Amino acid sequence: MMQASFLDIHAASTAFDGMAQNYDATFTESMIGRAQRNVVWDALQKAFRHGDRVLELNCGTGEDALFLTKRGVSVFGCDASARMIEVAERRKSVEAPSSSLEFRVLRNEDVGTLMPATRFDGVVSNFSGLNCVADPSQVARKLIHVVKPGATMLICVSTRICLWEIAWYAVRGNFKKAFRRFRGAILAHLGEIAVPVWYPTVSAMRRSFAPWFRLRSFRAVGLFVPPSYVEPWVRNHKSVLARLETMDRIFAAWPVLRGMGDHVLLEFERTG
Asked: Exposure of 143 by Cβ count < 10 A (0-12 exposed, 13-18 middle, 19+ buried)?
């Protein structure tokens, strides 16, 4: 298993700095990105209501924060990438200039440095931010000091077993990529920068956040909807994507299958 280091952390923030300006065009606004994010947004709408105060980890360009703040939720968004925060601030000034939305450059591992006047009603971490953290329990220990008892936490991470990825690369004879997540950790190349990425199991995530957070439920995100690298194929098969989204709505919470999507959405509750 890879161990995290200062250089690893710096590499990750540098890599995402380089992706920031084009991130929305390449993922947020993509067909697959939108299809997968809609699943998370359905959960956000159910979990949080007008007047809630939510902490968002690895907020990226602010897409989820803007979604919540437009529904009356106050959001404090953090990201290790200064360039991502710059894009988020720019989007806020255009899309929600009068909102109670705040962004800050802050790594997930440093969330304990926050000293909120009022503890948060919930936490959100979308699309694999915690896959860049070697030991999620270190984040969990710090979150308990900034969130209220009973708070809901929604975490979306890349899974250990992704049926789409296995099939996509296996039929092309690339078995190394087909089963790369099985190793639990890999070096992912984001542009020219190698970044360590961990693939925890649902059981491992449950243990990492216990006893401070209780896992209430989880479901697949991208069970039949494919990973983002399949976007060129999807653009030529738009009607197929609509059917795959319908299948996700039906099967993504089924036992066994719910842990085999491109991502898994975990819903925790703060105990105590």
From this structure: buried
Domain that includes residue 195, residue range: 6-270
Provide the domain count of the chain. Answer: 1
**Residue pointed to by tokens 């606004």:** 29
Q: Is residue 221 part of a domain?
A: yes
Residue with token string 């069970």: 223
73 and 52 in contact (C-beta within 8 Å)?
Answer: yes
Q: What is the pTM of this model?
A: 0.94
> What was the pLDDT predicted at 196?
93
Tokens of 111: 């969330």
Residue 1, in any domain of the structure: no
DSSP string, 101-137: EEEEE--GGGGGG---SS-EEEEEE-TTGGGG-S-HH
Q: What is the CATH number of the domain that holds 79?
A: 3.40.50.150
CA distances from 46 to 19, 49, 128, 258 (A): 31, 8, 21, 19
Distance, CA of 73 to CA of 75 (rounded, Å):
6
Per residue in 92-109, pLDDT (tens digit) is: 999 999 998 999 999 999
> Has residue 79 been placed in a domain?
yes
